[in-house]
Amino acid sequence: MNNKYNIAKELLKKYKQEHIIDFIKKNNLGTKDKIIEQILNIDFDELKELYNKTFDDIYVDLEELEPIIGVNPDRLTNKEIEEYKKIGAEIIKNNKFAVSTMAGGQGTRLRTSKSKRYI
């Protein structure tokens, strides 16, 4: 673990994530090993690039956005889940997706009178 820990520690320092080192130290040996393995599998350069892209000025035509219907995966069969995974993979492969995270409340800023829960 020592060598991997040192490599992970240097990565965390390089990307200014030293607070995770303290978190590692507070865990038992088995958990420490799992956290270290996760850290070593992170592509920090790609993560940094993706983060920087969040500041790009991107034009989105709100008139083209369409509401989606939520699906509760707890109520789906395994076959239905697999079908959704295939659909999702195809959409991602064709760059035809968007991601949105919303808190509760009304969707007035999204030009709708519906609660965001139902958008």
Beta-strand residue percentage: under 5%
How many domains, as an integer?
2
The beta-strand count equals 0
Distance between the termini: 47 Å
What kind of sheet is the major sheet? none
Proportion in helices? 40-55%
Average the pLDDT over all residues and give the rounded result: 83
Order of helices and strands: HHHHH
Residue windows where pLDDT falls under 50 for at least 5 positions: none
What class, by secondary structure content? Answer: mainly alpha
Number of helices: 5
Instruction: Name the overall outline.
Output: extended
- For this entry, what is the oligomeric state of its chains? single chain
Radius of gyration using CA atoms only: 20 Å
Tag the structure with descriptive keywords.
mainly alpha, 119 residues
Plain-language structure description:
There is one protein chain. With 119 residues, the protein is mainly alpha-helical. The chain has 2 domains: 52 residues; 57 residues, no CATH class. The protein has 5 helices and no strands. Helix 1 crosses helix 3. The chain is extended and about 55 Å long. The protein starts with a helix and ends in a 26-residue tail after the last helix.
